[in-house]
Each structure stands twice: as structure tokens, then as C-alpha cells.
Design a protein that fits this description.
EC number: 3.6.1.-
CATH class of the largest domain: Alpha Beta
Protein name: Small ribosomal subunit biogenesis GTPase RsgA
Strand order of the largest sheet: 3-4-5-7-6
GO molecular function: GTP binding; GTPase activity; metal ion binding; rRNA binding
Helix content: 25-40%
Family: Belongs to the TRAFAC class YlqF/YawG GTPase family. RsgA subfamily.
CATH superfamily of the largest domain: P-loop containing nucleotide triphosphate hydrolases
Bound molecules: guanosine-5'-triphosphate, zinc ion
Order of helices and strands: EEEEEHEEEEEHEHEHEHHEEHHHHH
Radius of gyration: 23 Å
CATH architecture of the largest domain: 3-Layer(aba) Sandwich
Strand content: 15-25%
Organism: Secundilactobacillus silagincola
Distance between the termini: 20 Å
């Protein structure tokens, strides 16, 4: 396999991607029911995943998603379907738990540089939800910034900003008001060409409105966003990556009604609690009734809010629940592919022996 730098620069920063001879590099810009739209140096194509890849796919994460870099076999005619032969390594991946009680993973997008965590400054404002978003974002590998929307709807901006800064660590906080042109300046200035951004946030916080503003005069493309962004009863699974006039790439994620927690980085997001816990008498302190609990002491001293601790516990419980189920899933996958752990080990040993 030769490494080659490909100039798909408009669809991502100029990186080195793996490319096998005979195949072309492409970026997945839309998916819908295992149909893909890809962009290559030869233009845009519809694509399908090669059967060979499908045979090995057992998990949602084994399939391409929006933002993925893939290696494709291009057809002679652009109207024919291309074949996705390989899925390149992901720099970042954003998963969410599928709705409901099962802890199955749904792949939202890959290779996102920035997650823009959106929260409205109206009745939607909820610092506990922001903690959840920050914890999930921290585990994705992408950087995150906080976008506070509907600034025109609040009279308590200063207090809200104080509350946000208390939980946001060093994440950048951007305030937007889509009712005024000037209200978009901060976000516009923040977004850079060839970097990939994904807006996350509950339904109605104004994500589509922000994207429409950023699209500016490109009303055609905006219309395309709206069409797949089905606000009606039929929830569509279509996602797409759109290019803004300034060259930034934006992943639109419709249907994010609830952000289920699958993987979270609580140590980073709750660094204050992690730090306090070092002084607990017991290493495995649950910070409930244990004697010598430094976290409870901080709550008693008014140093840490009870609500933040409750939020931390809630996310921790969700995460350990999912990790247990994740292990069971991993074992099931090993069973399917090798017939069991023992067989897998024997197989790996054989592979290593052959390589020598
Ligand atoms: N007052 C005010 N209203 C806004 C602002 N931004 C968006 N809205 C309104 O809020 C409503 C929801 O906005 P959308 O952009 O559709 O929200 P969304 O986050 O894309 O929602 P989903 O697509 O369901 O996830 C619309 O009626 C917008 O006009 C703002 O800055 N100020
Ligand atoms: Zn403790």
C-alpha cells in the first residue's frame, strides 16, 4: 500500500490518506439507508459498499458514515455506482446510543474536527444537559466549543454565561442571535475553511437556522439541507456534509432528539470532582456515605454543587451500564467471527507464526 497525498482539499485539510493502487480516495458526504454519496477528485458519485466489506461488518461502526474517508473503485460513467472497497482509519468518531433501552451504537459522523454543542438561552437552557454533551464530546476525539443560541430570548445572559463557564473548562463559548446579522459574527469568525464541524443540540435550539445563516446566499444548498432535515413525522436517517461559502464543512445531524450516552470522558469533563476524589479516604469511594469523602465534604462546604455531583453520578451510572453491555457485545462479535475467544487466540498465534 502506497501513501499518497491527495488534493481533495476542499473536503478536508490536506492530509495523507492511505490509497491502494487502482482505487480513488473519496469522502462520504451523505448517507441514507446504506446508499452513499461520495466526493472524489473526479466529482461526485453514488456509491455502495463492496460485498467483501459487508461480510466483515458486524457493528454499526464497521460501515462508512458521513465524514469518512474511503477508497473507492470508480465506474466508467459518472451515472453508475461506485464501490467502496476500503474504509480508512478515522481520526475522530462520534457515536450515540440509539433511542430506547438497548445500548446499540449509532454512528453519527466521522472525522469531525469540531463539535459545536448548541444550547438555547431560552427555556432550553440547562447546565446539566451541557455537562452531558461535554462528556460525550470529550470522548469523541474532536475538539468542542459551546454555541449558545437565541441570545435575544434572555435577560440573564451574564448569569447564564457564569453558569456555563463553571462547567465548560477551557471550551470556547460563542453567543449567537440569529435575529440580527451582527449576532452571527462570532460564529462566522470562528469557523475555518476545510475543517469539519458538527452542530449538536436538542431539537429546536436553532441549529438549522444557524446553518442557513452560514450558508448565506446559497439558498439552493440550504433548501437541500432542509429537505433531508425532516421535521415531520417521518424521521429520516439521512445525514449530510455541506460546504459553506467560506469553505467550512458542516455535518447536519437531523433527528438528534435525545443524545444517548454511550461513551463519555467524565474525568476530563468533571476534572474538579476527579481532583477532589484523590483526597477521599477510600480509593473506590462512591462519594455517598463513606467516611472521609472529600467530595461530600466539598458539597458541605459549598465548594461543589449538589446538582453537579448528581449529574456526574448519573452519567457514571449510564456509562458503566453501557460498558457492561459493550463487553457482552464484543464477546458476541468474537464468537461470530472465530467461534470463541480461545479460537481467536489460536488464530492470532497462527497469523503471527506465519509472519515470521
Ligand atoms: N428568537 C430567536 N429564534 C430563533 C433563533 N434561532 C432559531 N430560532 C427559531 O427557533 C425555531 C427552531 O429553529 P431550528 O433552526 O429549526 O432548530 P433546530 O435546532 O435545527 O431543530 P431540529 O432540526 O429539530 O433539531 C425556529 O422557529 C427558529 O426560527 C434566534 O436566535 N432567536
Ligand atoms: Zn468520596
Amino acid at each position: 500500500m502506497e501513501d499518497k497525498t491527495i488534493k481533495l482539499t476542499e473536503y478536508g485539510v490536506n492530509e495523507t490518506h492511505k490509497l491502494t493502487a487502482g482505487l480513488s480516495l473519496a469522502r462520504v458526504v451523505a448517507t441514507s439507508h446504506q446508499q452513499y454519496t461520495i466526493v472524489t477528485d473526479q466529482g461526485q458519485f453514488q456509491a455502495q459498499v463492496a460485498g467483501r466489506l459487508l461480510n466483515f461488518a458486524t457493528d454499526a461502526a464497521d460501515f462508512p458514515t458521513v465524514g469518512d474517508w474511503v477508497q473507492v473503485r470508480l465506474p466508467e460513467n459518472q451515472t453508475d455506482v461506485a464501490t467502496i472497497e476500503r474504509l480508512n482509519d478515522r481520526k475522530t468518531v462520534f457515536l450515540r446510543k440509539t433511542a430506547g433501552r438497548r445500548s446499540a451504537a449509532q454512528l453519527v459522523a466521522a472525522n469531525i474536527d469540531w463539535l459545536l454543542l448548541c444550547m438555547a438561552l431560552d427555556a432550553n437552557f440547562n447546565v446539566r444537559r451541557l455537562e452531558r454533551y461535554l462528556a460525550i464530546a470529550a470522548a469523541s476525539g474532536a475538539q468542542s466549543a459551546i454555541v449558545l443560541t437565541k441570545a435575544d430570548k434572555t435577560t440573564q445572559l451574564a448569569e447564564q454565561l457564569t453558569a456555563v463557564v463553571e462547567v465548560s473548562g477551557d471550551a470556547k463559548v460563542i453567543v449567537c442571535d440569529a435575529t440580527r446579522t451582527a449576532g452571527m459574527a462570532e460564529l462566522t469568525a470562528f469557523m475555518q475553511p476545510a475543517l469539519t464541524y458538527a452542530f449538536l443540540g436538542s431539537s429546536g435550539v436553532g441549529k438549522t437556522t444557524l446553518i442557513n445563516h452560514l450558508m448565506g446566499t446559497s439558498s439552493l444548498a440550504t433548501a437541500a439541507v432542509r429537505k433531508t432535515d425532516d421535521h415531520g413525522r417521518h424521521t429520516t436517517t439521512a445525514r449530510q456534509l455541506v460546504k459553506l461559502p467560506n469553505g467550512s464543512l458542516v455535518i447536519d445531524t437531523p433527528g438528534m432528539r435525545e443524545l444517548g450516552l454511550l461513551d463519555a470522558d467524565l474525568d476530563t469533563t468533571f476534572a474538579d470532582i476527579t481532583e477532589l476524589a484523590k483526597d477521599c479516604r477510600f480509593n473506590d469511594c462512591t462519594h455517598r456515605q463513606e467516611p472521609g469523602c472529600a467530595v461530600q465534604q466539598a458539597v458541605a462546604d459549598g465548594q461543589l454543587s449538589e446538582a453537579r455531583l448528581a449529574s456526574y453520578r448519573q452519567l457514571q451510572a449510564e456509562q458503566s451500564n453501557n460498558q457492561l453491555r459493550g463487553k457482552a457485545r464484543e464477546n458476541a462479535k468474537i464468537d461470530r467471527m472465530f467461534g470463541g475467544k480461545k479460537q481467536m487466540k489460536a488464530f492470532m498465534k497462527e497469523v503471527r507464526r506465519k509472519r515470521k
